[in-house]
Amino acid sequence: MATVIKWVFISALGIFVVLQLVAIPTLVQQTNPTVVQEPNWDSEQTRTLARRACFDCHSNETRWPLYSRVAPVTWFITDHVVEGREAVNFSDWGTFNEEAEEFAEVIREGEMPLPNYLPLHPEAHLTSAEQEQLIRGLYATIGMSPTQPNEAADEHEEHEEHEEYEEDE
Ligand code: HEC
């Protein structure tokens, strides 16, 4: 019996090591290219919120924690960053023509930040007040005035305390 356990352990270890070797080409993709150009942020506050909730996947300033280097986790994380940067990159804004409505939609519907990212990154969680702040900030940054918020309209009372947003204008 002891030998069986020993061999199970050795095989598991072997598989783990092989996975790490297979993942090497993925590790090479875990880079942070130079920041080319950020958007012309309407306020530092908008940037801070975006940095907290979006930058890991949508900028060239991704934090790569130790576990992100370990297969099989590394494949999921690297894919998110590669695809995230392709969709929106706050560090290379010039090449993007993202619509503010698109941001409002993915943020309000809880699609972004990706829900499976939140358990390990509680700091990226946005309260509904912060979501609205970020949305308004992104509208201002992109240069449009926000359309009337729809589902979020009923939550507007609790936003009163966030007057500092107006002061930045
Ligand atoms: C854990 C990684 C991750 C985080 C954090 C994240 N995103 Fe994304 N985002 C992605 C990926 C991957 C895609 C591309 C695939 C997709 O559309 O689901 C994407 C796509 C998008 C798109 C394009 C959607 C479309 O359908 O074209 C927008 C807009 C977006 N994200 C905004 C945000 C905003 C705003 C935040 C912060 C509040 C954020 N994302 C945080 C990973 C992330």
What is the topology?
Elements: H1 2-22, H2 24-28, H3 44-53, H4 55-58, H5 73-87, H6 100-108, H7 128-142, H8 164-167
Helix pairs in contact: 3-7, 6-7
Protein architecture, described:
The protein is mainly α and 169 residues long. The chain has one domain. It has helices spanning 2-22, 24-28, 44-53, 55-58, 73-87, 100-108, 128-142, 164-167. Helix 3 (44-53) crosses helix 7 (128-142) and helix 6 packs antiparallel against helix 7 (128-142). The longest helix has 21 residues, at 2-22. The N and C termini lie far apart (72 Å). It binds heme C. Heme C binds at residues 53-54, 56-58, 80, 83-84, 87-88, 98, 102-103, 106-107, 112-114, 117, 124.
Put simply, the count of helices is: 8
How would you sum up the global shape? elongated
The amount of beta strand, in percent, is: under 5%
| Estimated helix fraction | 40-55%
Task: Give a quick account of the main beta sheet: strands, pairing sense, barrel closure.
Answer: none
Which sequence of SSEs, written as H and E, runs from N to C? HHHHHHHH
How many extended strands? 0
**Count of discrete structural domains:** 1
Q: What distance separates the N and C termini?
A: 72 Å
Give the cofactors and ligands.
Answer: heme C
Ranges where pLDDT stays below 50 over 5 or more residues in a row are 151-169
Radius of gyration: 20 Å
SSE-based structural type: mainly alpha
Query: How would you state the average pLDDT, rounded?
Result: 88
